[in-house]
Fold 4-deoxy-L-threo-5-hexosulose-uronate ketol-isomerase.
Amino acid sequence: MEIRFQNSPKETSRMNTKELRENFHIPALMQDDQVQLVYSHYDRVIVGGVKPYSKAVELPNHTELRAEYFLERRELGIINVGGNGAVEADGEKFTLSKLDCLYLGKGVKKVSFTSDDKNAPAVFYLLSSPAHASYPTRKLTKEEASPTEMGDQTTANRRTIYKYIHADGIKSAQLVMGLTVLASGSVWNTMPAHVHTRRMEAYFYFDVPEQHRVFHFMGEPTETRHLLIANHEAVVSPPWSIHSGCGTSNYSFIWGMAGENYVYTDMDAVAIADIR
């Protein structure tokens, strides 16, 4: 598990491309039969991925957590963006099709991941945050996630938003999680941009065509930077940073948040004309 510490806005504004990528970009998150984890000191969120290919893959514990097991003091959101698969949690099996979500609360001791077919493996994105209370394990399909159509083709941001873990969906201690699917011909996400200093955010991009990329914009609204993101790559977004993007093709992404405020709509909007 890689450990990443916080960076201030002032420090970040002076970073070159390599330094920005080393601190905020998470490449190669999905590896066959492995669990990849990055521990961020922004609200102590862990971003991870697991792609079970030829065997069941267990969620490991890490000495850095100083815990008896991974979810002793944590909660975990899981979204499948690949083929059919399953998650087993303390002996109970949950099947997940593409875009299905599973929440595991504090206290779940043993977690493992499998794919139904190694020729079309499941691809599980993981997001974990510290938890002060235990909430029940719950699965939510994409059809149950109250899909909402937003945006307009004229501004190239027609999209469908699926909300899974939030105050009116799957209950959690602090984790908020969902995903956005951009329609064909649309490329912009989260524009106009916003910030929320009360919580950090992480983005995971998927269904990005092989030869295409997403320009992910970050930084303070008046000091923006960008990262170039490929399929199955993630970005750690600090609380003081915008998190917006534009792709060379349409794509999808998972968004997840943790921090002081649990309300999904808590955000400080930034007018497009004010961005620099």
Observations:
- The longest helix spans residues 17-24.
- The chain has two helices and 24 strands.
- The chain has one domain: 2-131+138-274.
